[in-house]
Every structure is written in C-alpha cells, then in structure tokens.
C-alpha cells in the first residue's frame, strides 16, 4: 500500500520487561509511540507465617514469558518491618532463582518485597509476637515406659523470654 512503511521490532534477546519509544519521520511529519514489552515475571515462594525468632527461606524466581529462568540478574529484597535478610542484593542463578533467608525478629504483618529485571513482587509474612517452643530432650535420649519425663518449653515475646505466664499442657494417647 502506498504511504505505508513496515518495521520489525525485536528485543535483541533481552527477556526483561521494558518499553520501546519509537519515532517515525516521513515527508516532514513526525509521530512517536511507546510500545511496552512485557512477560517477564518475578515470583516468591515461602511460608506466610512465622514464629518470633523463626528463620525461613524464601525463593524468588525471575522467569521470561516462556517460563524459563532469567540468569545473572540483580535482585534486591527488603522487609518493611526491618526483619533481617541473609542479603539484600543478590543475583539470580542459572535457573533465575535467588534464595533469601528471613528471620522473624519483629512481630506483626510484614511485607517482603523484591525487584529484579524491571519486575517486582511482594508477599505478606505474619510474624508472631509470641512464640512457644518445646525444648527437646537430649539427642537419642530413651525414656523408659512408666517413667516420668520432665517437659520444658520456652515462651518468648518478640524474642525476649517471658516469665510468670501460665502454660497449659494437654496430652493425648498415641
């Protein structure tokens, strides 16, 4: 068709989300268009709740539009409550993944956020203010049938030991 021009736009093999700004000039007329290129996504997997002081691994995956991992991309992760992360800045591995260790030191509903390759993701992590943990007997300890065995637990509030609280135990057979 007369007066029509065609061009092919490619990403040049770069799988990351971006926008291309294209300007056309012909016979003294100019027009500009912005074309978004998308499909790359960042996802997160890990627990949605933690006890106070608990440590958990969260896996971030940066994938292209075909679901393939995007390697060697910088990733930045943050905790809105300031809970410690093993590292705030990392790079994706050959599978497009980064594993971050999160420690729930500040109780409440936290927002764990990350960004990589023009993609971002957030998830809520509820960190309990109080945590009750059984203190296990010595490794490989054997308890004889019919013998009493002391059971010990530790109650903490935001990581600090709590005293003077009543703790109720319930037992079942089996």
In short:
The protein is mainly beta. The chain contains no helices and 13 strands.
Layout: helices, strands, pairs:
Elements lengths: L17 E9 L2 E9 L3 E5 L3 E2 L4 E9 L10 E6 L9 E3 L5 E7 L4 E9 L2 E9 L2 E6 L16 E6 L2 E2 L13
Parallel strand pairs: 4-10
Antiparallel strand pairs: 1-2, 3-5, 5-8, 6-7, 6-9, 9-10, 11-12, 12-13
Q: What would your notes on this structure say?
A:
The chain is mainly β and 174 residues long. 0% of the residues lie in helices and 47% in strands. The chain is built from no helices and 13 strands. A five-stranded mixed beta sheet has the order 4-10-9-6-7, with no helix packed on it. A three-stranded antiparallel beta sheet has the order 3-5-8, with no helix packed on it. A hairpin with a 2-residue loop joins strand 1 and strand 2. The model has no long low-confidence stretch (mean pLDDT 86).
Q: What is the N-to-C order of secondary-structure elements (H for helix, E for strand)?
A: EEEEEEEEEEEEE
What structural class should be given to the helix and strand makeup? mainly beta
N- and C-termini, Cα separation: 82 Å
Average pLDDT metric: 86
Which labels suit this protein?
174 residues; mainly beta; 5-stranded mixed beta sheet; 3-stranded antiparallel beta sheet; 0% helix; elongated
């Amino acid at each position: 068709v007369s007066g029509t021009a065609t061009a092919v736009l490619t990403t040049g093999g770069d799988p990351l989300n971006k926008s291309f700004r294209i300007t056309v000039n012909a016979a003294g007329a100019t027009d500009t268009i912005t074309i978004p290129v998308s499909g790359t996504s960042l996802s997160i997997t890990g627990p949605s709740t933690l006890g106070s002081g608990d440590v958990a691994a969260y896996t971030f995956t940066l994938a292209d539009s075909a679901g393939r991992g995007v390697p060697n991309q910088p990733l930045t992760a943050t905790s809105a409550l300031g809970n410690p992360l093993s590292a705030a800045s990392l790079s994706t591995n050959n599978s497009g993944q980064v594993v971050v260790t999160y420690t729930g030191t500040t109780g409440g509903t936290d927002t764990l956020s990350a960004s990589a390759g023009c993609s971002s993701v957030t998830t809520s992590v509820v960190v309990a203010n109080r945590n009750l943990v059984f203190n296990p007997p010595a490794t490989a300890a054997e308890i004889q049938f019919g013998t009493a065995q002391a059971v010990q637990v530790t109650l903490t509030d935001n990581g600090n030991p709590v005293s003077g609280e009543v703790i109720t135990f319930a037992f079942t057979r089996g």
